[in-house]
Design brief:
6-stranded mixed sheet, alpha+beta
Length: 165
């Protein structure tokens, strides 16, 4: 019994160690970039190169449906607060085939850009393209998160959902 308790405590301790993510992406035709993951204060680290094959054609942006249900705002807010964002640089130019759909999409991105501006050391440039379908972006930054905090938020959200049902 004490062995199981000790093992559980050890796992909880490991999950309480911060995880660092450094990323840099760009997409002008093809996706390129990398993600560096650091854990245990840099003792464990590795890099994942990201590269996309081929281009996204304008036809592929036609099927985006914006008529789905509302996102779980409370869960998104709690997860957002659990992240420690440092040096975020984001440029996004996005357009859908229908200008009305582009406007609806930017109605969703507007509050997101406000949340990003509230973080220290952020540079955000969101540009809608109403004339033609397109997707171009550059993103770079560093995010630090404690996995145990994310797990606690997800468990709490699940329990509150079960209590409401």
């Amino acid at each position: 019994m004490s062995l199981i308790l000790g093992l559980l405590l050890f796992i909880l301790l490991l999950l309480a160690v911060p995880l660092g993510l450094e990323f840099q992406f760009s997409r002008y035709g093809t996706l390129e970039g990398h993600v560096r993951i650091r854990w245990a204060f840099g003792l464990l680290r590795f890099e994942l190169p990201i590269s996309g094959e081929g281009e996204t054609q304008p036809d592929q942006l036609k099927g985006i449906d914006l008529k789905g249900g509302a996102p779980p705002i409370r869960l998104i807010t709690r997860l957002w607060r659990a992240l420690e964002i440092r040096d975020l640089h984001l440029y996004l130019r996005l357009g859908l085939e229908d200008p009305a759909d582009t406007g609806r999409l930017w109605g969703l991105f507007g509050p997101l850009s406000g949340m990003l501006y509230a973080c220290a050391d952020t540079e955000v440039d969101l540009v809608p393209e109403f004339m033609q379908p397109c997707l171009e972006f550059e993103a770079a930054g560093e995010i630090r998160v404690v996995p145990l905090r994310i797990i606690a938020i997800l468990i709490g959200e699940r329990l509150s959902f079960m209590m409401r049902s």
